[in-house]
């Protein structure tokens, strides 16, 4: 039978740019659905109703009142539009349940960086409504062919759907980061209305607890992760976080699809956050952004000194501790360092004094700042990502697009998206940054030293910048790969 209807997809996520973003999941949850929409997919997003979401979503209408869900409080389902630009928007469903979602703090953590104590209920409800809307129990006419779940907060959707006996959508579980698993006490299984039999190694059980992510990986029809290299890495012990056995046993259903980036929002030619727009043909504008960044962050104004940028969640994953270790050596190279980081009280405490000790060379800003993140991408010469693991990573791609050469650990998606500079990759025209391995403070420092040596050779540097800036990081190819997976699942049904 030839299918003429558009593919219908419910994309379930706990973050979406511009209304709620703690990291790359927020970016991807906006850009991938938009790219799929361009490919004629009928896609709708399901989101928790945090206050920023209720405020940012326009043309809201009540579409259903869930007042009879056992195990969950009453919730209202709203539909509306989320504008991503002046001309483009996404259709969204919002779960309005103020008792669970409207509060001061982040989506997962309170203001003291502690998990919200009712996270199992908050994201259990997201998963549950995701499952209802994806089955013939849905109160809506619109029913998806595919329920696309993202990370642990929607990991129970495939489990709920598995135990639903009527018509239902096929499920895709995307792992953006295996380190966050949504692990809760065993009693949560009953509290969230899952059958007791599901609390099994062949089910939602994970080392004696319930794991939302394990549930998703176990029950989803297909699993994806955000780069081909990470898809391999998570099947091994060192990066499998205890799920390597399950992932390896399902590897015929596991696909690595590298993330793209929003090439309109991250475009140095049109970026409104920059002091001066520029492109690969005319890089003089980049120097003005460097000056602006030095000025804004209180560093010495110096066009020659290499300026290294960092934008990240401060964490063990991102290697923030390694940056702290090498900072005094960096200053001696000499080099300048600008760090924009968020959410880790202990690492913040160590970073801030460094900036006080070396005020002309090191600047640290704590907190989430979208505008500054764009200026750092434009104003820095190099971008540092000493991640111990990195499922995909977006900043290394933003950096290349801005001619800011990335210095990255050879892991996960970083290995898939940055081509190490060697004489031969330069000749081939592919070199676009600097990779190092293994991940040690010394290895990081050596990689920075070697990048700075290359920086002194202006002709080579310029070639590297041009290579990096001409790479295609748009979503088109990756969105097509997701669409192929969706189609294969419908055909298999
Ligand atoms: P992760 O999702 O693991 O944090 P990614 O590289 O995939 O890493 O995505 C991080 C995203 O969050 C990027 O868009 C980055 O620019 C942004 N980001 C991280 N920290 C900050 C911050 N403190 N201020 C502004 N943007 C930030
Ligand atoms: C995660 C990963 C990051 C990835 C992002 C979006 O937070 O840590 O590597 O780019 O999700 O998929």
Structural domain tally? 2
Range of helix content: 25-40%
Mean pLDDT across the residues is 96
Order of strands, main sheet, comes to 3-4-5-2-1-6-7-11-12
What molecules are bound to this protein? adenosine-5'-diphosphate, alpha-D-glucopyranose
Described by the principal axes of the CA atoms, the overall outline is globular
* CATH fold naming of the largest domain: Rossmann fold
Keyword list:
binds alpha-D-glucopyranose; 37% helix; 18 strands; binds adenosine-5'-diphosphate; alpha/beta; 493 residues; Rossmann fold; 19 helices; nine-stranded mixed sheet; single chain; six-stranded parallel sheet
Describe the structure.
- The chain is of the alpha/beta class and 493 residues long.
- The protein folds into two domains: 271 residues, Rossmann fold (3-Layer(aba) Sandwich), CATH 3.40.50.2000; 186 residues, 3-Layer(aba) Sandwich (Rossmann fold).
- 37% of the residues lie in helices and 19% in strands.
- It contains 19 helices and 18 strands.
- It has a nine-stranded mixed beta sheet with strand order 3-4-5-2-1-6-7-11-12, sandwiched between helices.
- It is globular.
- The protein starts with 7 loop residues before the first strand and ends with a helix.
- The relative contact order is 0.10.
- The mean pLDDT is 96.
- The site of adenosine-5'-diphosphate has 18 residues, from helix 1, strand 13, strand 14 and helix 13.
